[in-house]
Amino acid sequence: MNDLHDRHRRVLPDWLALYYDRPLEITHGEGRHVWDAQGNKYLDFFGGILTTMTAHALPEVTKAVSEQAGRLVHSSTLYLNRPMVELAERIARLSAVPDARVFFTTSGTEANDTALLLATAYRRSNTILAMRNSYHGRSFSAVGITGNRGWSPTSLSPLQTLYVHGGVRTRGPYASLDDTAFIAACVEDLKDLLGHTRPPAALIAEPVQGVGGFTSPPDGLYAAFREVLNAYGILWIADEVQTGWGRTGDHFWGWQAHDRNGPPDIVTFAKGIGNGMSVGGVVARSEIMNCLDANSISTFGGTQVTMAAGLANLTHLLEHDLQGNARRVGGLLIERLRAAAAQDPGVREVRGRGLMIGIELTRPGTDEADPDRAAAVLEAARAEGLLIGKGGGHSTSVLRVAPPLSLTVAEAEEGAAILERALRGTR
Ligand code: PMP
């Protein structure tokens, strides 16, 4: 064990997840690459769990952050905060939420927590509908709505949570149904839940489940849910922490694949928008955002430095059409990975949208998850200089590929070739 790993284990919690038998210490990055403390170079196909949205050490973000840090680092509220107003205006416009208000947080967890605060206060109900296999964060209330048991360490939630089918296609009682029948079955399941309770405050869902293994429900699932929600006056919260900002290629927001009737009532975001700086937040129409009848502040949510990062990063993303790049390069990458997996009896599915691609591994000839092989593929890829992620439901048997959105075709091919070899070597 290297010395830093030893020190890590002595002082940090056991439940703080680390990848690899010999954990990596990453010391710097540039573009789509990172380097470890021993000087080894890696092509980064996971971007620190989709945190590096555009590129590592993007010069515009570095410049904006260092200039702002040299000028002022101060509390984000109590005084007028120009970069916060500017980023809020841009996100409000991009969100398409009518009469939108934006509140900034320091993480996705806190964004979802805020969404729950708003929804429960607005609807005067502490019941929440959440999806099976979902992940929404690590606070007391966020673990209470997280359907993925592997990431939900206590059941003593302050909320009553009802879990709905629909986030996962490859497992569960509806796995063999086609899209239309699958959506109909999930809608029936939702209606059945609602028949037994006072109307919940909201349904929260990731348009593509991230930690749960990049599972894509059929397009239109949430539009079908929404008809039911509307009938009961239940809000729809889209957790766009992983799917926002063009990640899925065809759309800027993940919800757009589902619902052509317009934006959700509440949208939460985090991760990539700050390109590694801690920017999260909530968008809601003012009637919902302003339903709280007590004051609030946030010392760090929306500080000048993180807002400067968000503004520079968003400008770069839009000016370079990185959403289009995610669609084009992601399309090539998924085809290549599908071809590589076609002859592999241990690959159940290669799925995804844009630069959010999952490879689900099962023990050949069975439906049983294969977390051992997933771990072996991660190690094999690392040995050849490629970092990927893993995720999935009750066991982590889905390989996750989510590089920075500026990935080039040559880098996609290089990474795909390494993954092909890692898959072949672990059969
Ligand atoms: N929601 C989703 C969909 C996520 O993937 C995550 C983080 N993996 C979170 C919320 C929590 O975000 P954070 O780690 O910034 O608290």
Written overview of the protein:
- It is a single chain.
- By secondary structure, the protein is of the alpha/beta class.
- The protein folds into two domains: 3-54 and 321-425, Alpha-Beta Complex (Aspartate Aminotransferase, domain 1); 62-319, Type I PLP-dependent aspartate aminotransferase-like (Major domain) (Aspartate Aminotransferase, domain 2).
- Helix content is 37%, strand content 16%.
- It contains 13 helices and 15 strands.
- The protein has helices spanning 3-11, 47-50, 59-71, 82-95, 108-123, 140-145, 179-194, 221-232, 286-289, 304-319, 322-341, 371-383, 409-425; strands at 26-30, 33-36, 41-44, 100-105, 127-131, 160-164, 202-205, 235-239, 266-269, 280-285, 347-353, 356-361, 386-387, 389-391, 398-401.
- It has a seven-stranded mixed beta sheet, with helices on both faces. The chain has a four-stranded mixed beta sheet with strand order 1-2-3-13. Strands 11-12-15-14 form a four-stranded antiparallel beta sheet, with helices on one face.
- Strand 11 (347-353) and strand 12 (356-361) form a beta hairpin.
- Helix 3 (59-71) packs antiparallel against helix 10, helix 7 packs parallel to helix 8 (221-232) and helix 12 (371-383) crosses helix 13 (409-425).
- The mean pLDDT is 95.
- Bound molecules: 4'-deoxy-4'-aminopyridoxal-5'-phosphate.
- 4'-deoxy-4'-aminopyridoxal-5'-phosphate is lined by residues 49, 107-109, 112, 135-137, 206, 210-211, 239, 241-242, 270, 280.
- 4'-deoxy-4'-aminopyridoxal-5'-phosphate binds next to helix 5.
- GO terms for molecular function: transaminase activity.
